[in-house]
Write a structure and sequence with these properties.
By secondary structure, the protein is of the alpha+beta class. Helices cover about 25% and strands about 20% of the residues. Its main location: secreted.
Length: about 700
């Protein structure tokens, strides 16, 4: 099927032609200052450009999503098809015509550009010189100080005044959209010559790893909210304050083991090459904790050349195997025998650029262009321009895979690291997928109110050492159309969780642990202790600086702000009209996993997102067997029924030289509404149409 092409328009208003250029986007002072210009881009360099056309009906999108997601709505569960979504949000004919005519007038004729299948992106190739003239911009190669990652960008660009309202943003533009760790072992130049190996992440040793993934604050993101870990022997049915297994998760949240699978149901786990897993690790884990699952493997969906990397060694294996091992071992154990899909995104040669956008392209054709259109230095472009054995030469995946009903991701940015326009555009895509009945669960982060590695920022955008500065909410967790998941731990001194639950006690508190000077997880941080000057690993949360307070959070977050909001002038968005993070929480401390044949224990919100996703997957299975739809966007239902969650009222998330926020009765920006009560959640969702 051919991609839709633009019609030729001959009418051009002289008044519009004469309109002056005005700055459309300028890099914010809050953008990560570790990016610096290396050199001006060669004027003859040819780049693929994407113009994000202003979409139609976005002002109705939230209402439409609530219509199929609000449990009080008569249309609850009546999710839309992809075709309906495309038709509802396509740009107006005036927008398409105006941008087309402007490009033609600027020398980019009709044969050089085309529309995406979803009609919301316009793609063309141009030299840097042409683009600089068209956008009144100067393009440079930027380099990240800590990692050496390079990106093509400009400081600002301009558009004619009459075009501004028709364009969200342009890439390459002012964005630094580096999605995964810069772990590529081998790179090849255009002639196929192997390049010098890039600096690998710092690995502290085979039996532990540092929390500053991959070894320093300021990594450009998104970084996996990777677990910290300790080695340990296996013990299947222990559940206490220093040892958590699938058995323990089931005990904490009253999850049954006898639910049968439903045809068409699935939970997706997203990983980015070179992150990988070993089937032998799955089997060792299952043998210890879920014997009936031995031999089971996830359904493997390779996106843009994604494959199971094997270039690690004994010293650094945890960095490559840790996150996928955790995600798959717990999701598959809790869901067995329900399907789990592994979305493995990107080849090795472009690992530093593989992006959330590459993943969204693969599951939603309305988001990508027919021939691709992701931008070098922003998103990975396929076929891969780099020669060599690790370069994917196939066509970019565009709507190749149907999305799983629930999708878990443990990666993110600090909100300040990307322009708001970019985050808003991507957030709208989660809204559209919610309309289609897909649940996205994102971990909220692991450094309290600070960003990755505990970093905070100054008003002029510089990164601090974490002892002061502005709080750093996490994105995409801050998008109001995803389920943001924080972390808890079993209360210190609780050696019999079953007895505590039977006695009506809440055995969990917010995840808070000391970090040693070497960056290792140490002992539990005492509830209520003074955190100033201490290095604490804790569940991230707070208030967005980009997204407003959604309607479903209105009453709960407003109640928190009126009664409990701390007084930290200038350090967080205390306007009372900001999206609160997280939504819910799950256990994130002392989870047992197997990595490269060894049992270890891990910590972080990375542990929580796949657990919550698995439980929602079980609920979907029961609904689908009853002839009902998937749960889709669950936030409105959970906020309207907080009784289906176990409120967590002890602990906090310190950072940036403050105590951070504290857990309170009801919603709070540490553990959200609380942890799952599976029987109550199942009963609620089964009662809905």
């Amino acid at each position: 099927m051919l991609a839709p092409t633009l019609l030729s328009f001959s009418t051009l208003l002289l008044g519009a032609l004469a309109s002056p250029h005005v700055v459309h986007e300028k890099r914010s002072i809050h953008t990560d200052r570790q990016w610096s210009k290396t050199t001006q881009l060669d004027s003859n360099a040819i780049l693929p450009f994407r113009i994000g056309l202003t979409q139609g009906n976005l002002e109705h999108g939230d209402g439409w999503l609530m219509d199929v997601s609000d449990p009080a709505s008569p249309n609850y569960g009546k999710h839309w098809t992809s075709a309906q979504v495309i038709d509802a949000f396509k740009p107006s004919e005036d927008t398409i015509r105006s941008v087309h005519d402007w490009l033609v007038e600027g020398g980019i004729d009709s044969t050089r550009h085309r529309l995406s299948e979803g009609l919301n992106w316009l793609e063309f190739h141009a030299t840097a010189s042409e683009a600089e003239s068209l956008f009144n911009a100067k393009y440079h190669v930027f380099t990240h100080a800590a990692t050496g990652t390079r990106h093509i960008a400009c400081d600002e660009y301009s558009l004619p005044a009459h075009i501004q309202s028709h364009v969200d943003f342009i890439t390459p533009g002012v964005h630094f959209d580096a999605k995964t760790r810069d772990n590529t072992i081998e790179m090849y130049d255009a002639e196929g010559n192997q390049l010098e190996k890039r600096g690998n992440p710092w690995w502290p040793g085979p039996n532990h790893r540092g929390p500053h993934w991959p070894g320093w604050p300021g990594w450009p993101g998104p970084v996996p909210h990777n677990p910290m870990w300790h080695p340990h022997p296996a013990a299947s049915n222990i559940c206490n304050d220093s040892f958590v297994t699938p058995y323990c998760i089931r005990l904490l949240y009253d999850v049954p083991t006898d639910l049968t699978p439903a045809e068409g149901n699935s939970v997706g786990i997203v990983e980015y090459t070179p992150e990988t897993f070993l089937q032998s690790d799955l089997n060792t884990f299952f043998k210890a904790y879920e014997p009936q699952a031995v031999g089971e493997a996830p359904k493997f969906d390779s996106i843009d050349g994604g494959y199971l990397f094997r270039g690690y060694n004994t010293t650094n294996s945890f960095g490559y195997l840790g996150e996928p091992s955790l995600d798959l071992q717990y999701a598959m154990s809790l869901l067995y025998p329900q399907n789990v899909v592994l979305y493995q995104v990107g080849d090795l040669a472009e690992a530093s650029n593989t992006s959330f956008n590459n993943f969204l392209d693969a599951i939603d054709a309305s988001y990508c262009t027919y021939d691709g259109g992701d931008t070098p230095g922003l998103d990975a472009v396929y076929p891969d321009p780099y020669p060599g054995p690790h370069s994917y030469k196939g066509k970019e995946d565009c709507g190749t895979y149907a999305p799983a009903k629930v999708i878990s991701t443990s990666y993110g940015y600090g909100e300040y690291q990307l322009p708001a326009s970019y985050e808003v555009r991507q957030c709208h895509e989660y809204m559209k997928l919610g309309l289609m009945g897909v649940t996205f669960a994102y971990s909220s982060g692991d450094y309290g109110v600070g960003g990755y590695g505990g970093q905070c920022v100054t008003a002029d955008g510089n990164v601090t050492d974490g002892t002061s500065g502005i709080f750093v909410p996490d994105f995409p967790a801050s998008c109001p159309y995803v389920l943001a998941v924080g972390a808890t731990q079993i209360r210190n001194g609780t050696n019999n969780v079953a007895a505590a639950i039977k006695a009506g006690q809440q055995p969990e508190v917010a995840m808070e642990l000391y970090l040693t000077p070497e960056g290792l997880v140490g002992t539990d941080f005492p509830i209520g202790a003074n955190p100033i000057g201490k290095n604490v690993f804790s569940s991230s949360g707070g208030f967005s600086n980009v997204f407003p307070l959604p309607s479903y959070q209105q009453s709960t977050v407003t109640a928190y702000n009126k009664k409990y909001a701390p007084n930290y002038p200038g350090q967080y968005n205390n306007s009372g009209n900001a999206r609160g993070i997280p939504d819910i929480a799950s256990n994130g401390a002392w989870l047992s996993i197997v990595v490269n044949g060894n049992f270890s224990q891990v910590f972080g919100t990375s542990c929580a997102a796949p657990t919550v996703s698995a439980l929602l997957g079980l609920i979907n299975g029961e609904r689908m067997k009853a002839g009902k739809s998937s749960v889709g966007f669950v936030n409105p239902t959970l906020y309207a029924n907080p009784h289906v969650l176990n409120d967590v009222t002890a602990g906090g998330n310190p950072g940036c030289g403050t105590y951070g926020f504290n857990t309170e009765v009801g919603w709070d920006p540490v553990t959200g509404l609380g942890t799952p009560n599976f029987p109550k959640m199942l009963q609620l969702f089964m009662s809905l149409p």
